[in-house]
Design brief:
Blueprint lengths: L6 H6 L11 H5 L5 H12 L5 H17 L7 H20 L8 H22 L2 H4 L5 H11 L5 H5 L8 H14 L1 H27 L5 E3 L6 E6 L10 E5 L5 E6 L5 H17 L7 E5 L3 E5 L12 H17 L4 E6 L7 H16 L5 E5 L5 H5 L5 E6 L1 E4 L2 E4 L4 E2 L7 H7 L2 H16 L4 H4 L3
Helix pairs in contact: 3-11, 4-11, 5-6, 6-8, 6-10, 8-11
Pfam families: MutS_III, MutS_V
GO molecular function, one term: ATP-dependent DNA damage sensor activity
Protein name: MutS-like protein
Length: 447
């Protein structure tokens, strides 16, 4: 069971990096193998939606972190083994009986696989690993593969002994043809182990917390000290939601930190569903069916849609998912900013009230339209929080710390004046007039 989401949410949360910037994936990706990198990408693309599996994966990584366990294999072994195995596929594509590898490359590939098989056997037989109940499923699957009679001669090989040409030929036939499927299954287990150990290292180094997944449909989200993991000097916040308070109406001036806060919370919820540690001090959450965010919604030029219509379509998509009685986590940053204030006010109020009736889902709606709060305060399940601005003379200062209530902070014109934009425009007009003074009329008029 996987968490439902979409490309808009993936983009909003910057799950994957772009050419000029890294994403969350890169923050967690400290794997030693290309195979593990592919497994990690799959995990980020398909977060889990099963309480037991989320907690089990989280517990695996937590235990590995507590054991301070390092990845027990040399990366060079995988380079040789993978090149060796891929060559068999290339040979099939070319439709030739001749190997695309040299004798030395075949020997290196065979030796690398023998070493990996022996090392994974040693790893799963260690006392600490045997005692790990959460990883028992993976350990038993690996042990079952290694018990296959095909691996008996591999276990008998001496680590430093040089293989004969006949032995290499026999192992080549075994690894690349007869038991290729078992070799790939074994490597898949090692790649997953690489992910777990690498993420455990990230949790240790960054002091991330391991969330606890609660029963689906209970609409509980408890966060202590949550912050965005990509910020150099983050300000953390405490944040709580439940079925009795399943909607939060968030206000605050521009630059007060609303979008960053929304990304911090939604990132924690997303990553927690992968079963990974998150940037917070504590976290408990109800398992969800899906998460949909609307933080940086682009115009849909492909269908000739305005920004407002793109917003309408987004709300329609969310409404359709909610109609199926799914437990969702929904974020809208500045809902209906693409239309006039009157329509935006009315639409924000009506949509937010409709959201509040969906008690098995949770919603955070940020808005500049503080007047909407007057009507929304009549709905018991809607809570109100804001990010304040403190004025130091004419200079706005931001705490980035949540407070309860609604703020009417509006400092747009103060910032514009502080930047001297109006003076620049006026001075620019004066300079243009001065340049014309004393110039022949024919030149001044462009004749």
């Amino acid at each position: 069971m996987y968490l439902l989401t979409d490309e808009q949410t993936i983009e909003d949360l910057r799950i994957f990096g772009k050419r000029d910037s890294q994403g969350l994936f890169d923050l967690y990706n400290h794997s030693h193998t290309r195979g593990a990198e592919a497994v990690l990408k799959e995990m980020f693309t398909k977060p889990l939606s099963d309480q037991q599996e989320i907690n089990r994966r989280s517990d695996i990584i937590k235990n590995f972190a507590a054991m301070n366990m390092r990845f027990p294999f040399e990366g060079a072994l995988f380079d040789m083994a993978e090149k060796y195995l891929i060559a068999a596929d290339e040979q099939k594509k070319q439709g030739t009986q001749h190997s695309v590898l040299s004798e030395k490359e075949i020997s290196n590939g065979v030796t690398a696989l023998i070493t990996l098989v022996q090392q994974i056997k040693s790893f799963i037989d260690t006392r600490e690993v045997i005692a790990m109940k959460s990883w028992s499923k993976e350990r038993e699957a690996t042990a079952s593969l290694l018990l296959d009679p095909a691996f008996e001669p591999v276990m008998r090989e001496q680590g430093k002994a040089k293989l004969s040409y006949a032995a290499i030929t026999a192992y080549d036939l075994l690894f690349r043809h007869r038991e290729r499927n078992k070799i790939e299954q074994l490597l898949a287990q090692i790649y997953q182990l690489d992910v777990y150990l690498s993420v455990a290292r990230v949790a240790q180094e960054r002091k991330f917390v391991f969330p606890k997944a609660l029963e689906k449909g209970t609409s509980i989200l408890r966060l202590k000290g949550v912050y965005h993991p990509e910020l150099a000097k983050p300000v953390s916040n405490n944040f709580t939601m439940d079925a009795a308070n399943n909607v939060v109406f968030l206000t605050g001036a521009n630059m007060a930190g609303k979008s960053t806060f929304l990304r911090s919370v939604s990132t924690a919820v997303y990553v927690a569903h992968i079963g990974f540690p998150v940037a917070a001090e504590e976290m408990e959450f109800s398992v969800l069916d899906g998460i949909y965010t609307t933080i940086n919604l682009p115009d849909n030029l492909g269908i000739g849609a305005s920004h407002f219509y793109a917003e309408v379509l987004r709300v329609k998509k969310v409404a359709s998912e909610l109609q199926a009685n799914k437990s969702l986590f929904i974020i809208f940053d500045e809902m209906f900013r693409g239309t006039n204030v009157k329509d935006a006010h009315e639409a924000t109020v009506e949509i937010t009230i409709a959201f509040a009736a969906k008690r098995n889902s949770m919603f955070i709606i940020s808005s500049h339209i503080v007047e909407a709060g007057e009507r929304l305060q009549q709905i018991p399940s809607i809570g109100f929080q804001y990010l304040p601005t403190r004025m130091n003379g004419n200079i706005p200062e931001y705490t980035y710390t949540l407070e309860r209530g609604i703020t009417a902070d509006r400092h747009g014109m103060i910032i514009i004046r502080n930047e001297g934009i109006l003076e620049t425009l006026k001075d620019g007009r004066k300079r243009a007039v001065k340049k014309i003074v004393g110039v022949p009329q024919s030149l001044a008029s462009g004749e």
